Each structure stands twice: as structure tokens, then as C-alpha cells.
Amino acid sequence: MxxxxxxxxxxxxxxxxGQTRPGQVAMVEAVDGAMHDGSHLLIxxxxxxGKSLGYLVPALVHAVxxxxxxxxxxxxxxxxxxxxxxxxALLDATEKLLPRRxxxxxxxxxxxxxxxxxxxxxxxxxxxxxxxxxPSGAIGQQVVExxxxxxxxxxxxxxGDRDHAPSHQYQAxxxxxxxxxxxxxxxxxxxxxxxxxxxxKEQARKADIVITNHALLSIDAxxxxxxxxxxxxxxxxxxxxxxxxxxxxxxxxxxxxxxxxAAKRARRFVDDDHADDLIDxxxxxxxxxxxxxxxxxxxxxxxVLEAAAMVRDTARAVYSDLGKxxxxxxxxxxxxxxxxxxxxxxxxxxxxxxxxxxxxxxxLIDRDRFGKELRIAPLTVAGLLRELVLKDRTAVLTSATLTxxxxxxxxxxxxxxxxxxxxxxxxxMPELDDESETGPLPxxxxxxxxxxxxxxxAILYVAKHLPPPHRxxxxxxxxEEIVDLVTAAGGRTLGLFSSRRAxxxxxxxxxxxxxxxxxxxGDAHLNELSREFIEDPETSLFGTLSLWQGLDVPGSTCxxxxxxxxxxxxxxxxxxxxxxxxxxxxxxxxxMSVAATHxxxxxxxxxxxxxxxxxxxxxxxxxxxxxxxxxxGSFLRASLPPMWPTADREKVLGALxxxxxx
Length: 662
Known about the structure:
The chain has 26 helices and 20 strands. β10 and β11 (371-378) form a beta hairpin. The N and C termini lie far apart (54 Å). Residues 10-309 form the Helicase ATP-binding domain. This is ATP-dependent helicase DinG.
């Protein structure tokens, strides 16, 4: 007789001193059902539902009775939370009900682990020489501390994971870690048997449940399932982030500095003429970029594409030269293999850019400190996700924000599921004869709701009297509105702005008009600002995109969330603009499919910062009247929690003052 998921959930909730909620029960049943019948599942579980237990409980049962389960999270932080807190607590609470205690492991990308070869042999300089002496100054001191920490981790049989390393900057970590492409491989590396990354992979291969992240899940898909251990079920938490993370994993960049650095590293091992040719190609790329404007690169821009082709051809010659007479004796310190990895990366990206495939978008950006460079990413990742992630295993995709415009269709399309293949609640999983790329992938969508009573706990205030926002940023009327709202709230405000300039301007306006303490993103490290905001209820925090998602501020710390404008993507953002145009050319509505969907998702995430507990109360103030006056406004509002709506400014100011007095 199998394990009863309801009994297991009850024990799990009791073990963490929690309370079973109807939405959590519905989620456990739905996830368990999907694992049994093989259908895909999109499941929206509002904040406070207990989402982690909702999928971990059936995952335990499947892993014990059937086969390994992979759980993928959007961030390394959430990945660590599951491994360090949620999964151990769950196993302790349910151990007596299971035939055996399941094992679990965490798996991250190789660059998240210290590399013993780099720690002991040094990192390559610009000429590819392995230099043992760390940089001078603060970075150098951090490198020394990281090396000592890595050796101690080895002695203590710990993971060598960056999350547990001493405080350091990214430049210091680069001196003790390595990208997968430059890795010597466990068989050739003199420290392969001790390697932290290899140990993590081995532990994952033995585990019943593997906790990974969306980036590594993407890499595993692109590399034909050779990175993660075999599994037949994947659970994707924070699934609304999956398309963006896959886009990032499938994207690349190419800059003159990258090409020049690869050429210098290869010079030790190749003919000088070949290395010089690659240097010349980097100069040609720089010249072409300098003559080009920011934005999408299309067929008409032959100078950039010709330069990319020159980089491709010269990198191919250097790579071929590096491959001659390459063996362990020829490369005792691994520097040649690492140089090959760097040159191969340059070749692969340049080849992809020069091809200008219709399924890719290439664009030029100008980074203030580093100059111009090329970026490339897929026009869409839906097909990639459908073919590489969803086709031959069960996927459970969950988040607090998966229904946009009132249904799952928008997210389903983004992850490669077709609305036409959606099953009704009482439909049985059909027999599938066709497993080809065009075959159906049946899926269900379920919103298990939220324990919060949004109509009673939250007000959605739309400032209809304000003018629509314009490109020049916020105006005097918006600043006056922000000052009045924050004053009425007595601080206690999270300000979510569409740009850094808007956040800084609003901060300056409130600081000038009041004595309230306003923190602004950029004043200090974001973790420090968030901690100060949470600890002092009368302090407010203003910022941009990174505050729209993931910030947890329950209680009176946050009684007011201000959103300055609907967060549409910039019209000149090349990838979004290309995707929107592609939908239009295919006969669809590109604005609604791309721009409005993007904005709806961010609005849902942003408004979700307000109510985090059943006792929370507050107001979301949207200063953009288009959310009620424009035709697309109903789609955006349907994507938000069901808060009580109003445009009455005086009622809102009064409600904020009462909350301040409570």
C-alpha cells in the first residue's frame, strides 16, 4: 500500500508548527495527480499558501515509490532555503510515515564552487599565464581568504560553495572559480578526485530529490540532459521566471575585450601570426561597433556582421592550432586547455552572430565603463522549453503569479504549452501516440487561491486625476502625490519605480518636503537597505526592478506600495521589440502578447509585496491612470489580487493615517 499524501502533509505541517490550508491540500492533490498521470501542471499558489510543502510532499512520495525528482528554483537563495531549511524539516517530520528516509542534494553550476586547480595553481593573467600571486589591495586580501577557506572546506568535507564563503567581491571569486568551458575535467585535473563541483554532481546522482536552479536546468536541457541526473519529474518553483532565465542561459555576448583576451591567452601555444590575426579581428569588431548605433543588428548592418565573421574565422584557426599536439604532457598546468575553452567560446558566439539566424535576435549595447558589445538571444524560448524540458517528462510549474489577465494561457505559451492542449478539470489524460515536436502536450491549470482576504486587507488606489506618465519621467504632480501618500503613511512605504532616475528623483522630492527617512536603491548594498527598511517601520525604501520581486516585508513595515507607472518594457529594448514584432507579423497582437504580459507579471509581483501575512493591511497606489482608462487596463487589473478598488484620494489618505495610528 502506497504512502497517503494527505497523511504525509498533515505530519509535515504539524512538524513545522503550521496549519493545513485548503489551498495547500488542493495543491498536494493536484501535484500528486500530475505525477501519476503524466500531465503537465501549471499551479498558482498565492503567498501564504505553503507552496513549498505543497509540492515537496508529493515529490517525496514519488521519489520513494518511483524515481528521482528534480526541483528547480529561480534563485540560488531560494535553492539554499529549500536545502538548508525546508527539506530537512520536512524529512524530520515525515520520516516515520515513509518506507525509508529519502536523500536530497543541491546542484549548482560549476562556477558556484571553488576550483582547487585555481586555488592552488593560480588564475590566468591576460597572457594566459597561471599566476599564483593574487592581486594587490582589498581584492588580493579577499583572494587569500578565499583560498584558505577553500582548503578548510576540503578538510571539513564541506561543499566549497560560494554561498558559504567569506565576504568577497565578484572579482575575487573569479580568482578561485572557473567556468565549465575552461574546466580541465575530472580525469585530467590533478585535483579531480577532490573537486567540489564533481562531488556535488556525484551526490546528486545518488539523491532522491535534487534541488537545482533554472539556469542549470536550462544548461542541462541544452546539453542533452548530461548535467543533471536522470529524472522523470521536474518541479519548477517561481515558474514565472523560467522563460527569462532560459533566455539568459541561451543568450551570449561578444566584445572586443573578450576576443583580445582570448588571443593573448592563446599566444603562448599558437603561431604568432594566428594570435595576431585574432587581435586584428578584435580591432575590426571594435571599429565596427564604434560606427554603429545601439539597438538591433539586422542584415543591413553588414559592418558588424562582417567583423563577427572575421572573428569567427580567425578564432577557428587559433582553435585548430591549439588542438595540435595537445596532450597532458604538453599541457601540465592546464593553461592550454583553458585557453582552448576561451577561444572556442569566442568562435561559437561569433559564428552564431555572423549567421544572423531568423530565430535569434542580435543587438548592440553600450556599457558605460566597458564600451560597446554585442548580445544575442533566442527570439522565443517556447520551442526550446517544449522540446527540451517538457516533451518527455512531467513538469509541475508553480508560482504565486501564473494567471495573467485571468487565465494561464499567456504563461502557458511562454513555456511552450498550447492553450488548445489544456485539459478540463474532469478530463482524463489521453493516450499519446505521437511524441514528435508537434504532438500535443496535455496540461492542466489550477489556481488554489490564497489564505488572504484581499478585499478586506488591501486597497487598490489608482490616481485617475494624475496625467498619464511621459518619457521625461515623473512631473511635479506625481511628486506631490508621492509626498502626500508617504506623509499620510508616516513612512512605511515601498516605492517601486520604472527607472533608477525616477526612484532617485522621488527620493529627493520626499526628503526635501519631509523629515521622513527615505532609503534609495544605490545608497548601499541592497541587502543592507532591505534589512534597515524591515527593522525600522517608519523608514521607506524606493527602488527599481530588483525590489518588485522577492522582497518579503510583513507587518507595519510596509503599509503602502507605490507604483509610479505601468512597467511596460522600453519600446527601444531590442529583444522585447523583436518578439513583439514577430507576433504581429504572425497575425497576433504583439503588444498584448509581449508588452502587456510583461507588465502584468511585474504588476502582480509588485503588488504582492504588500500583503505577506493574514494580519497585514495596506494600500497599493498606482500613479498611472492608464490601468483604468486604457483598453488593456482590464487585462492588467485581472492579473492583480482582488483588492478593493478606489480612485478617491481623500479616502486613501485617511486610511493611511488610520493605519499609522493603529
